Structures are given as C-alpha cells and as structure tokens.
C-alpha cells in the first residue's frame, strides 16, 4: 500500500492505527481534518488524546465494515404483481 | 436479571465525563479558539491542529458554554471583517474591486475552516437555540460590515456601473473579476443582489438606452437603427451570460426592448424612405426579418406591422385594380395580381417566418381589392383561357400544376364565383369547339380543382361538355363506319353533338350551307336520329370551322382554315367571279352583323386578304363588290383566317352577361329561402337575410334588397306568409 493511500490515527495511549484513507473518510470530521488545510493535512496523522485505544480500535473496525458494505450495491428487492423483481432502493 | 443463589455484584453506571473544576475553563478554552481564528484569517492555518480545536469547541458546547462560544465567534469575526473593510476602503481606483475580491475569497476560506472546527456547535447548539448557522452568519456579517459599510456600499455600486458603461461604449473590461463580484452579491442573497445592484443597474441602463435611442433615431434610417438595436440586445444577453444572474436577462431585455423599440415603434415603421412600406416594396428580406424578430418581443409590435402591411396592400391593390390602363389587357392584369401575391408570399415565408396571422391579413387584403373590380372574375377566366390555349405549351407538368394552383388561390378570393363560372363556361366552349386547347390533362386538372373547391354542382356542366366531345368522336366513328362507303370522295365532316343544358346558350342563326355540305349534313342527321330517337338536332353554324383547299391564280395552292360563315362565302366564288354584298347576303342568309365581320376578316386584313373588295375601304358597304384575290400569297402553306378567339367583352356584351347572371341568381336565392324556412318554420326578417347570405356565400354575395324582393315574390306565390301580429316574422306554408 502506498504511503499516500493511508492515514495514521493515534490514540490517547499512543497506539498508531494505520488505515486506508478511504476508510477514514467515512467520518465527516476526519475528512474535514484531512482536507482542511490544517496541521493534520500535511502529515496525514491525526491525534486523539481523549480517545482510548480500545475505542479507537472499534472505530477503525467500523470504518472498514462500513466501507465494505457500502461498496456492495444492495437492492432491496420487492416482488412485484406479476412475479418480477423490481429494484426499490439502493443502500 | 434472574435472582439466583449467587448475586451478581456489579452495577452499570452512567458514563460520566470529566468534571470541569477550573472556573476559568470557558475563558481559557475560548482564548485558544480566538487565537486560532486569528491565525486562520492570517493564512496560518497549517500550523494548527484541527483535532485540538475541534475538541475544544466540542467541550465548550458539552459543558454548556455554547452561548459564550457563539457570541465570541460573532465578535471576533466582526473585528476581522472591520479591519478587512478598512483595507478595502483604502484601495485606490482600479484596485478597489481587486482588493474586495481578494478579501472576499479570504473570508470564504476562513469561514469554511471555522465552520469545520465548530461543526459540533453547528449541529447541536445552534438548531436547538434557533440561532443562525455558522456559514450563514459569516455571510451576514460580511454583508453588514463590508458591503453595507457606508464608505463601500455606494462606491461598489458606482464602480460596477461605471465598468458596465465602459463596456457598452466598446472598452474591454475584466469580466472574470466582474463575475466574481456579482457572484458575491448573489451569494449574499437575492435581496442584496437586487437592492445593491440590479435595481440601479436596470435604472441606469434604461436611461442609457433612452438617450442612445433618441440619438440614433435622429440620424439613422430604419434598417440601420434596427441593426443597432439588435446588436445592443445581443450584447446585453451576452453580458448576462458572462457575469450576471440569469434571472436578470428577461429584465434587462425588457428594458432594451422598451427603450429602443417600443417607444419608437410607430416612428420606425412610418419612417420616410426607409420604413416598413419601403422595405416591402424593395423586398428587403433581411431587414424585414430583423424588424419582425425585434417587434415580436414588444407587445402589439407585430399587430402594428401587420396593420400597416394590410393597408399598404389594400391601397396598392386598389390602385392596381381600378387602373384603367391595367384593365385593358386581362392576361396582364391577372399576371400582375399573381406577381403581387407571389411577392408577399415570399416576404411572409422568408422574413415573417410564415406567421399565420400575416397570411390571413394577406388573404383578406386580396379579397378586399380583387372584388373592387367587377370584371375580375371575367379576367381570371380569360387568363386561364390564354394559358390553356397557348401559354402552357412546353411547360412541364409540375409547373402546370403550380400555375393552376395559383389561379385557384385567386379564384378563392372572388366573391362572385358564379360570374366566373359563366365566363369560364363560355371560354371553355370556344376552346373545345375550336380544338385549341393545349393540354387535355391541364383542363381536367383544373376542373378537378374547381370541384374540390366548390362542389360537384359547380363542375357538373363543365364535365358534361367534355363528355359531349368524347361522345361526338365515337359518333363520328360510327357514322363513317356505317355510311363511309356512300360518301366516297366528298368533303369530310366532323360533327360535335352538344347537349343543350351543358353548353352556354347561343342563339341559332340562319345560314345556307353549300350544296355539297347540306346533303352530307342531312345524311348525318338521319344517321344520328336513327340511333337516338326523340332528340332534336339544330346546326350551330356560328361556331364551326372549315379547312378549304384553294388555288389562287392557277398557281398558288393553299390550305385555308376559316369559320363556317367564311366557308359559305368563299364557296360561292366557285361559281362566279364577282359578287356584291347584297348577293352574298341573299345567297348565304347569314345575319348582317356577322356577315360584315366575316367579310372584313376575309378582305380587309393585311396578309390574309383572300378576297378583294371594291372600294378598298375598311368598312363594308351595301354596294361593295367582292372577288377572289388571285395575287394572294403567304409564306405558309396553311393559312388561318379569323379564328373565333375569346375576347374581352364589349360593353353591351358585358351588360348582357351581367344581366343573365342576375337572372340566374334569383332562383338560387329563392331556393335558399325555401330551404331555410322549411327547416325553421318561423323566422324574422334579419335572421333570414343573415342565413341566406351565409348559405350563398360560396357562390356570390347576396344583396339584401334582392333577398327582400324574392321573399315578397314567394309570399305572392303562397310559399310564405307574413305573421299577423308581428310584421317582421315570416311563416312557412307547407
């Protein structure tokens, strides 16, 4: 993985989580941090002095889960009047 | 939770956040943020940690210091905007807009960053307290501190208007900068855009165009002025597309249209030597199209053009139609009408984009003036006659159709279609009998068109005439098949048998045919009556032609094509050298007026004088003596003498025809009255007149006085009666 594709999230205890940039962007706040023109943008590192490691770990897992299922189309199929399947909504 | 022998000893407590002990917590945190905002405005954001600032803002809101945060934001932003404002004010001349633009961009960037770090407050504190969101707040503060700053507000407006004015006079300005500034005003809200710019812009533009239009109209002619107006209009549309709000387009085009076009409408149209009438006369398609497009935009612009055009066509048409010079030659007369129609058709289709209302105006004008000349129906029939005799020789089928269609268009304009019918019948009869029609297909095609236009009734007799011609051909074949052997070397007879009802009535005259012919004719008569009993045949000697083989002076042989009368006269000279007028009259028994004309064409026409007359005067006297002209020569072997050509009628003939038409109308009016009364039973006077006129519209314009007379006549004959109480009501008597 290239350096540019990843960001580093650092927990209160100093644990460094290196994850996909795309995954991190799931959070609007982190997205703003990384594209805002602040300190974080330059280095691609975000410090979270008030978030513990275990919590941050869970957050990163959530990012990846969200990304995985967001990249799959999910059509909610509804059986129509004559037995055909009609796509109703896209998740 | 199940209660078992072993008790679980733990409890789940609510999550408690760190308690704030420091009383100056809010101020400290705010200070951090305030400093950060300053750095952001100074383009030093890259040294700040987003996370830290976000966390601080978040904590403030969480610990119920949202109010402090918000008010702090307002005051610090205001401060920065005020200093920006000062630096904008200080800018000189041209750099004013530049400075404004730069500061605006700076403010926007800063605002975005500030909004990002204060996102939590924006999402929670602000909605619950119904305060203005950060972004909107930033725009409002900008508006209040910069745009509406007393030193900047009017200066900004004036600068923009001045630039636009310069562009209007031809200078090139920085459109990108203008676009940004205008966009800034748009972003601040529609009321700002309108109040701080658009209103004044429209006002100033109106003044500008008012003055300019005044100047132009004094010195330009119509076409030039319209070009300039069009150019200005396009300029404004261009300006809007490049740097103004699209909603301004209709407003500014309205201004231009009003000032440059609507205000000067009439003056432009009636401009001497260059206005609408001149353009129409000179077929200035491009200028007319431009005028149409521009006037289309203003209310009643087009109707003004249409009205002027209509009155012009009516006037020129009236002149044309009542000009005695033009009326002398009917074919020319109709051709000028067709030309005129073509001209305006072309103008309407190429310059007025085939506007239907203009087509209608054209039709109504033509209808108006064509009917001003009572001889129009006759002339149109003569025109068609000329075309079908020789005018269409060598013309392709499609072109023939085109010409006939155009004639039909003129026919539709006629009010007195029955007059046309009468003349057409006469001319058609002459054409058919003299065999002079150029194309049978063309004749039939025109009949079909007339049938489509006026119904079967109109053309049934005309078609009857064609049928008679065909039947006669078959009869002749039968005659020669049956009696051919007996006739041997005698003269060849060709007979057209005409059904009396279909053909125009002619009075039969006396005429003594030469012996050779009379026996032949009798043979034919007995043959015909043999096959068609119960019919009566009458010879129409005034409508026939004959081909004679003549030898002059023993040497020159010619074939002469003459009328029946002329043939009778010439055959007399087979037996004698000289004959006086009286002798000829006695021998042939032809009526004197016809005989005189016949002799004139034989003896007095240069190049066709097969007879010599003593004395050599133009007129025929009772005592004139005629002899064969032995020294007659001609370049052609076949010589045609005095064909019966359809002439424009002389005065007495015209009166006669008109009288006959009037007579024919009487029964038609009566039939219409009876039809109407039969279905309505009771009707009052005015309504009868209206209904009858409507019914007869397709044939002629009924005269109310004449209708009244017909009603009286019907009352006398007990078809109708007057109501006893109301003298205006009529009742139908079964």
From TrEMBL, chain B:
Superkingdom as given in the UniProt entry: Eukaryota
Gene Ontology BP term (one): ubiquitin-dependent protein catabolic process
InterPro entries: Cullin (IPR045093), Cullin-like_AB (IPR059120), Cullin_homology (IPR016158), Cullin_homology_sf (IPR036317), Cullin_N (IPR001373), Cullin_neddylation_domain (IPR019559), Cullin_repeat-like_dom_sf (IPR016159), WH-like_DNA-bd_sf (IPR036388)
Listed SUPFAM superfamilies: Cullin homology domain, Cullin repeat-like, Winged helix' DNA-binding domain
Every Cullin family profile domain range: 375-603
Signal peptide boundaries: none
PROSITE patterns: CULLIN_2 (PS50069)
Record's keyword terms, sorted: Isopeptide bond, Ubl conjugation, Ubl conjugation pathway
Molecular function per GO: ubiquitin protein ligase binding
PANTHER family, alphabetized: CULLIN (PTHR11932)
Family, per entry: Belongs to the cullin family.
Protein's UniProt name: Cullin family profile domain-containing protein
């Amino acid at each position: 993985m290239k350096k540019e594709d990843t960001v580093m999230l650092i927990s209160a205890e100093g644990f460094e989580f290196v994850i996909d940039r795309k995954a991190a962007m799931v959070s609007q706040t982190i997205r703003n941090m990384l594209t805002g023109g602040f300190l974080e943008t330059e280095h691609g590192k975000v410090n979270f002095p008030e978030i513990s490691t275990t919590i941050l770990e869970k957050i990163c897992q959530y990012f990846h889960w969200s990304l995985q299922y967001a990249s799959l189309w999910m059509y909610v199929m509804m059986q129509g009047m004559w037995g055909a399947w009609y796509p109703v909504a896209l998740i | 939770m199940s209660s078992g022998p072993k008790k679980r000893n733990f409890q789940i407590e609510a999550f408690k956040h760190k308690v704030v002990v420091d009383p100056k917590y809010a101020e400290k945190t705010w200070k951090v943020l305030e400093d950060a905002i300053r750095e952001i405005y100074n383009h030093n954001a890259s040294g700040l940690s987003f996370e830290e600032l976000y966390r601080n803002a978040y904590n403030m809101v969480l610990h119920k210091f949202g109010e402090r945060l918000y008010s702090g934001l307002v005051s610090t932003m205001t401060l920065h905007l005020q200093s920006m404002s000062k630096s904008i004010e200080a800018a000189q001349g041209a750099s004013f807009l530049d400075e404004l633009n730069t500061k605006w961009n700076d403010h926007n960037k800063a605002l975005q960053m500030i909004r990002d770090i204060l996102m939590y407050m924006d999402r929670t504190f602000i909605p619950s307290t119904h305060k203005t969101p950060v972004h909107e707040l930033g725009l409002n503060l900008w508006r209040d501190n910069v745009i509406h700053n007393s030193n900047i507000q009017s200066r900004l407006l004036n600068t923009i208007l001045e630039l636009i004015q310069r562009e209007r006079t031809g200078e090139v300005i920085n459109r990108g900068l203008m676009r940004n500034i205008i966009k800034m005003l748009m972003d601040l809200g529609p009321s700002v855009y309108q109040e701080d710019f658009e209103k004044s812009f429209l006002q100033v533009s109106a003044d500008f165009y008012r003055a300019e239009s005044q100047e132009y109209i004094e010195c330009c002619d119509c076409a030039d002025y319209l070009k300039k107006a069009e150019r200005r209009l396009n300029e404004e549309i261009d300006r809007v597309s490049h740097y103004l709000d699209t909603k301004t387009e209709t407003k500014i085009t309205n201004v231009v249209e009003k000032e440059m076009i609507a205000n000067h409408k009439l003056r432009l149209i009636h401009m001497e030597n260059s206005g609408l009438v001149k353009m129409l006369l000179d077929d200035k398609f491009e200028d007319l199209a431009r005028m149409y497009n521009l006037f289309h935009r203003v209310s009643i612009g087009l109707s003004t053009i249409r009205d002027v055009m209509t009155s012009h066509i009516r006037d020129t048409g009236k002149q044309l139609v009542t000009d005695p010079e033009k009326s002398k030659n009917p074919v020319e007369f109709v051709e000028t009408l067709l030309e005129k129609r073509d001209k305006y058709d072309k103008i309407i289709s190429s310059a007025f984009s085939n506007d239907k209302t203009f087509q209608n105006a054209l039709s109504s004008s033509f209808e108006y003036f064509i009917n001003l000349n009572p001889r129009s129906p006759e002339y149109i029939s003569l025109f068609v006659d000329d075309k079908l005799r020789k005018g269409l020789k060598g013309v392709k089928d499609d072109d023939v159709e085109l010409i006939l269609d155009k004639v039909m268009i003129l026919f539709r304009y006629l009010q007195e279609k029955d007059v046309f019918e009468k003349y057409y019948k006469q001319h058609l009869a002459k054409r058919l009998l003299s065999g002079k029609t150029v194309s049978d297909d063309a004749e039939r095609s025109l009949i079909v068109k007339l049938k489509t236009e006026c119904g079967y009734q109109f053309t049934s007799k005309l078609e009857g005439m064609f049928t008679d011609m065909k039947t006669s051909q078959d009869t002749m074949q039968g005659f020669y098949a049956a009696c051919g052997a007996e006739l041997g070397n005698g003269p060849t007879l060709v007979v057209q048998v005409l059904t009396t009802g279909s053909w125009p009535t002619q009075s039969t005259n006396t005429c003594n045919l030469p012996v050779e012919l009379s026996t032949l004719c009798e043979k034919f008569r007995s043959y015909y009556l043999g096959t068609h009993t119960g019919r009566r045949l009458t010879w129409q000697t005034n409508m026939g032609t004959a081909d004679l083989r003549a030898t002059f002076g023993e040497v020159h042989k010619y074939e002469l094509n003459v009328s029946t009368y002329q043939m009778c006269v010439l055959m007399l000279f087979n037996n004698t050298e000289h004959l006086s007028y009286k002798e000829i009259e006695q021998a042939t028994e032809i009526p004197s007026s016809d005989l005189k004309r016949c002799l004139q064409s034989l003896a007095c026409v240069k190049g066709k004088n097969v007879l010599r007359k003593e004395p050599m005067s133009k007129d025929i006297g009772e005592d004139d003596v005629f002899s064969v002209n032995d020294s007659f020569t001609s370049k052609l072997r076949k010589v045609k003498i005095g064909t019966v050509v359809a002439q424009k009628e002389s005065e007495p003939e015209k009166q006669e025809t008109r009288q006959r038409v009037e007579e024919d109308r009487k029964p038609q009016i009566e039939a219409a009255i009876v039809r109407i009364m039969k279905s309505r039973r009771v009707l009052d006077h005015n309504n009868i007149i209206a209904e009858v006129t409507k019914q007869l519209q397709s044939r002629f314009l009924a005269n109310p006085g004449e209708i009244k007379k017909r009603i009286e006549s019907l009352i006398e004959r007990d078809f109708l009666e007057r109501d006893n109480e109301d003298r205006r009501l009529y009742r139908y008597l079964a």
